[in-house]
Design a protein that fits this description.
This protein is mostly helical. The protein contains 7 helices and no strands. The chain is elongated and about 65 Å long.
């Protein structure tokens, strides 16, 4: 069953999650849920350790008096879990690092991105199998590369 959910300031977790890296967001959602279970002694699973997504789902089903709040935790658990899965499955870390470096013109250490190094990294990404880097990601990287680095390269490198 699909349900539309609005993530905005009225959501108790959204303001704390929106700018976090996905791995940090997963940790925050899990920690917040554990704190909720621990602090609500009336909940039937309050004294039991809840360490997994399936354990959290089971805990939510056994606390009907907290349905609305638990639904919000459930949404965040589902969204962060799906994002984490896609991040891993689509090998997005190297894609996003290159994209960020190209778009900002600086690497993660704050140093200026050199055109030749960016070209080599892009070539490496473009040569990956589609299972390692999707055609959509390759095209996006190529467009960003041309938009941000095209003027810095001699004619035979673009």
């Amino acid at each position: 069953k699909s349900e539309e959910v609005l993530l905005d300031e009225s959501d108790p977790l959204w303001p704390a999650l929106r700018y976090l890296h996905i791995s940090d967001a997963l940790t925050v959602v899990e920690d917040e849920f554990k704190a909720f279970v621990k602090n609500n002694k009336g909940a039937s699973l309050a004294k039991r350790e809840v360490d997994t997504m399936s354990g959290m789902s089971e805990a939510m089903r056994q606390m009907p008096q907290y349905t609305e709040l638990l639904k919000k935790y459930g949404v965040h658990m589902d969204v962060t879990s799906k994002c984490s899965h896609l991040y891993t499955e689509q090998n997005l870390e190297p894609v996003l690092e290159l994209e960020q470096d190209l778009a900002t013109g600086k690497d993660k250490e704050g140093k200026k991105v050199k055109a030749r190094e960016a070209t080599l990294r892009l070539e490496e990404m473009l040569q990956m199998e589609s299972g390692q880097c999707s055609v959509t990601n390759k095209l996006r990287l190529l467009i960003i590369f041309v938009a941000y680095m095209g003027d810095e390269l001699p004619g035979d490198e673009v």
